[in-house]
Design a protein that fits this description.
Number of strands of chain A: 0
Organism (chain A): Thermosipho japonicus
Helix content of chain B: over 70%
Radius of gyration of chain B: 17 Å
Strand content of chain A: under 5%
Protein name (chain A): Multicomponent Na+:H+ antiporter subunit F
Subcellular location (chain A): Cell membrane
Structural class of chain B: mainly alpha
Structural class of chain A: mainly alpha
Shape of chain B: elongated
Strand content of chain B: under 5%
Largest interface: A-B, 46 and 49 residues
Oligomer: heterodimer
Keywords (chain A): Cell membrane, Membrane, Transmembrane, Transmembrane helix, Transport
Radius of gyration of chain A: 15 Å
Shape of chain A: flat
Helix content of chain A: over 70%
Largest sheet of chain A: none
Number of helices of chain A: 3
Distance between the termini of chain A: 56 Å
Number of domains of chain B: 1
Number of domains of chain A: 1
Order of helices and strands of chain B: HHH
Number of helices of chain B: 3
Membrane topology (chain A): Multi-pass membrane protein
Chain lengths: 85, 106
């Protein structure tokens, strides 16, 4: 089942490339944070798939911590962008 | 069971690609949030459930990660959309109805 790895990393590489282009040339900062949120979710799924590639269950814990930190990052940057009333 | 898991992983990878494409080509912050968040939520469900089905030892932690993503991903998208609206970023000219302001006019 090694052909699955090539298919998976091909699709994930294209998705990461488009998200990263949007981070580079987004007009406003909200666009950049939206693209960063998508990129974080894609990387969380990729870390879970790496547990299957390397046959090591420790990657699931890393994915859980990475998802928690990415959610906190999105909420904190959004509250910062909102500004004070 | 293993074949079903690999099929789910391939479908989820395709939805990851669709999420990245949607966040690249949509014209607006709100459209980009909708495309990116919905596609990547479904892709994450499919990929992580597929990994749990291929190796059954990973299934409990995979279900925990699925529940965590299902809780946090829409919350982050909603908070970001509200922040973008309150900051004053306008939608495109094709958007007709502004429900946040409460009226039919834009």
């Amino acid at each position: 089942m090694t052909i699955i790895n090539y298919i998976f990393f091909g699709f994930v590489g294209l998705g990461v490339l488009f998200s990263f282009l949007r981070i580079l040339l987004g007009p406003t900062s909200a666009d950049r944070v939206a693209a960063l949120d998508t990129l974080n979710v894609v990387l969380t799924g990729t870390i879970v798939f790496l547990a299957l590639v390397f046959k090591n269950g420790l990657y699931l814990d890393i994915a859980l911590v990475y998802g928690l930190l990415s959610f906190t990052e999105t909420v904190v940057i959004s509250r910062y962008l909102e500004g004070k009333k | 069971m293993s074949i079903l898991g690999y099929i789910l992983i391939t479908i989820g990878a395709f939805f990851y690609f669709l999420g990245g494409l949607g966040i690249f080509r949509m014209p607006d912050v709100y459209n980009r949030l909708q495309a990116g968040t919905k596609a990547t939520t479904l892709g994450s469900f499919s990929v992580i459930l597929g990994v749990g089905l291929v190796n059954l030892d990973y299934l409990p932690k995979a279900l925990i990660i699925i529940a965590f993503i299902a809780l946090t991903n829409p919350v982050g998208s909603s908070v970001l959309a509200r922040a973008a609206y309150l900051k004053g970023i306008k939608p495109t000219d094709k958007t007709k109805v502004d429900e946040y302001k409460g009226g039919d006019e834009k």
